[in-house]
Amino acid sequence: MRGRLWAALTLLSVAVLSASAVTWVALQRVDARLQDLHQETLSQVAQAIDLSKRSSDLATTAPYLLNQRSNFLIEQEGAKLLTVLDRVRTDWPETRFDSAQDPQTPVSDILDSMTAGVSDLVAASRSLDTLQAQLRERTVVLGVLRNTATTATASPDGDDAARLIWWSLQSMNSDSLNAAYAGNLIGVGEEQRHYLRQREALNEFPLNAQQEVFLQQLEGAVWGVTGIFELRRLELSSNLEAQNALFRIRHDANRINELAGEYAGQAEAFLAGERVASSRTIWGARMSVAAISAVSLALAMTAAIYVSQYVTFNITRVSAAMVRLANGDRASALPRRLGGKDEIGDLFRSFRSFRANALRLDRSNRQLDQRNALFEKVFTNISDGIAIADATGRVTARNPAFLKILKLSDDSAEAASLVDWLHQGRFAEAAQGIDLRHDHRGHCELVSSDGQVLDIRASKLPDDGRVWLLADVTERRKMSDRLQQIDRIETLGKVAGDTAHDFANILSTIRTHAHLLETRGHGDASESLDAIGNAVDFGASLTDRLLAFARKQNLTPEVVDLSALIEGMADLVEIGLKPNVTLDIALPMMPLQVRVDPGQLESALLNLLLNANNAIEDVGHIKVTLDQLGTDQARILIEDDGHGMPLDVLDRAIEPFFTTREGEGGTGLGLSIVYGFIRQTGGHFNIESAAGHGTQIEVLLPLAVADQVHKHLPSANACLLVEDDPKTRASVEKLLVELGFDVTTSDTGHEAMMLLKHNQFDLLISDLDLGGTIDGLDLVEAAGWGPHHVKTIIMSGKSSAKKGVPEHTAFIEKPVTSNTLAQAL
């Protein structure tokens, strides 16, 4: 090794001398190369020119903003322009070639000016888009008015004076439309002055109701900050602002082009000076190389002994460390400070690389073991069954849940394919009807003989095998069936509501005639009248409950006497009870009043009583007790001697969608809805039950003070009655006559509108739905136009219609009686 090193040092001496000669020649080439390098510095100049071109492109692209038709696109394009400016600001070369130049370069000021111009252009474009959208809306409205005026002008029904007015209105509408398309502010002003002249001339002619409405709509579209004239002026002003911003952007782009040209000239002058200085430096380097060559020859012999010892010692250390590392000693290491930029240093670095690779390999093996353990844990504990099959369909691996879902024991015989596994369990019959080949993809469902639903999915593996995923979706399917059942119940509720509305009109007629016969004193007909009245009351009660079931009852809380409410629904409850089930109601002597929604409370109590009825299988008894608990609560106690509920069912009794009567149409929503309603009312809901010992439900409601009802009968007697149903109209008319009114009747909204316009009435009673374009609310609004105050009342068979009735208008729910009519008056 030493002999080789000495030979190498000898060659090194020769090489140094040769290097001196070669270096002399190389420096000549370096000089030429240096010229090329100086030329390459011109890239900065090219960069400045490129950034200048970007600024010019930005000035060319900026007008595109004015063609956008949404604020989102305007903001997006504006952000792109600002991004270009930021790139120009960031990439503009900072190298300075002239030390005498002002250090504060004006490029940042120009870019700030361009940024402000782009921001102004974006703002103007956004304003233009908003104004043009409003102009289009106003143009659509004016277009509709133009069609209305054209139709009215061409109508043969009107006289010449009316047509002349319509022509004037049509001309005014045309002026407003022309303003929307005027090319400048002067044109807009001319159209506005022409509009005002025609408007002033129109004041001399009387307008009918339709023309008044048309004029109001036209004035609303023309005047104000959102009128057609003002919007067009703002649009033209915004367009001028946008053009100004474009001019500023183009001007600043030209200034950046001028700066780029100046920068290129300075760079050229700088490079010329640098070439002269580099030539002088190379000449000095040549002289230095000659001296260094002589010194190197002397130093080479001096370093020979030192290098020999250095190489031998370090190679020995590296070889020993490599042997230890190969034997598995990962702690074997070499000092990092040893090893320079030579072959010995390469050996040191190679050893460290080998050691690092060995450590990484060990770490990768540990991570692979962890991942395998994690996969094994997931594969073992996942609730769905997983089976892995090869390309032939043979099952090569499965998790424990696979047998659990198929309801197979652990000692089941191993099967070749998934179909063979299915044939061993309860899905054997269902599996015969489908084709589950080894190349199956997608999913399918199997239903076992006991109703279990199995969802089977297959995914392809890279080796053409399959991963089979088996999931028990029985509960999910039951939930879907329950939701469909709820939809059917909601549909039934809608039908019940519509039926109750029609039935209410019939009951109104029966009730009115019964009342009239009674007040006229037909003594021998009193028994029949009592029967009619009782039947009507029972039918009205059924109607109210149908409306409550259909969720069409007004859900406004009011003060209710619980004794009267429970006693009133006794007949309805007894109809739904089983033949051998008895109902006992215990009410207190004094009234107990609470503030609650009566319809919702009746539905809740009916739900609880029917649940108690269902809990009794043969002969049983249901008891309802109403009493006062303390000083501020009323208690409703419902007890039955049915089969009761076990503890697990009691814990989930008020859970939504939980039911024990799936096959009998139960939805699992009854008790949850009752519980939510009682809690929202401010009360409490408790259930006590045990299997075989019946159920006790306690409902606690806060007591309230009943409101006083004041009845004020009118002193005036001129009444307009509007009802499209002849029987209801006749019965209500008789009630009004008995109260002393002079009644005028109408069966259509148009006829009633004309009567209100040409006559003076003190009272207006109208059905809400008149079957035409004009309804009862339109008549109420028309009654308020005149100088004379008119009392207004709306009738409807749907109590939910009260929500849309104005506050100053009374509401009567059909059927109408003398008492409800007097109370409304």
Counted up, domains total 5
Average pLDDT value?
A: 75
Shape: flat
Percent of residues in beta strands?
Answer: 5-15%
Q: Strand order of the main beta sheet, please?
A: 2-1-5-4-3
Unreliable spans are: 549-555, 705-714
Radius of gyration: 49 Å
Query: What's the total count of β strands?
Result: 17
- Helix percent reads 55-70%
Largest sheet: 5 strands, antiparallel
Determine the structural class based on helices, strands and strand pairing.
alpha/beta
Count of alpha and pi helical runs: 23
Taking the alpha carbons of the first and last residues, their distance comes to: 127 Å
Layout of secondary structure:
Elements: H1 2-40, H2 42-61, H3 71-91, H4 107-154, H5 160-180, H6 185-202, H7 209-222, H8 228-326, H9 343-381, E1 385-389, E2 395-398, H10 400-405, H11 418-424, H12 428-431, E3 442-447, E4 453-460, E5 466-472, H13 474-519, H14 526-549, E6 558-561, H15 562-568, H16 570-576, E7 581-586, E8 593-596, H17 598-615, E9 620-629, E10 633-640, H18 647-651, H19 670-680, E11 684-689, E12 695-702, E13 718-722, H20 726-738, E14 742-746, H21 749-758, E15 763-767, H22 776-783, E16 791-796, E17 810-813, H23 818-824
Parallel strand pairs: 7-9, 13-14, 13-15, 15-16, 16-17
Antiparallel strand pairs: 1-2, 1-5, 3-4, 4-5, 6-8, 9-10, 10-12, 11-12
Q: Can you walk through the features of this model?
A:
Residues 1-21 form the signal peptide. The protein folds into five domains: 2-93 and 105-120 and 240-302, no CATH class; 134-238; 382-472, 2-Layer Sandwich (Beta-Lactamase); 554-708, 2-Layer Sandwich (Heat Shock Protein 90), CATH 3.30.565.10; 718-824, Rossmann fold (3-Layer(aba) Sandwich), CATH 3.40.50. The protein has helices at 2-40, 42-61, 71-91, 107-154, 160-180, 185-202, 209-222, 228-326, 343-381, 400-405, 418-424, 428-431, 474-519, 526-549, 562-568, 570-576, 598-615, 647-651, 670-680, 726-738, 749-758, 776-783, 818-824; strands at 385-389, 395-398, 442-447, 453-460, 466-472, 558-561, 581-586, 593-596, 620-629, 633-640, 684-689, 695-702, 718-722, 742-746, 763-767, 791-796, 810-813. The protein has 825 residues and is α/β, with parallel strands linked by helices. It starts with a helix and ends with a helix. Helix 1 (2-40) packs antiparallel against helix 8 (228-326), helix 2 runs antiparallel to helix 8 and helix 8 crosses helix 9 (343-381). Strands 2-1-5-4-3 form a five-stranded antiparallel β-sheet. Strands 7-9-10-12-11 form a five-stranded mixed β-sheet. Mean pLDDT is 75; it is low at 549-555 and 705-714.
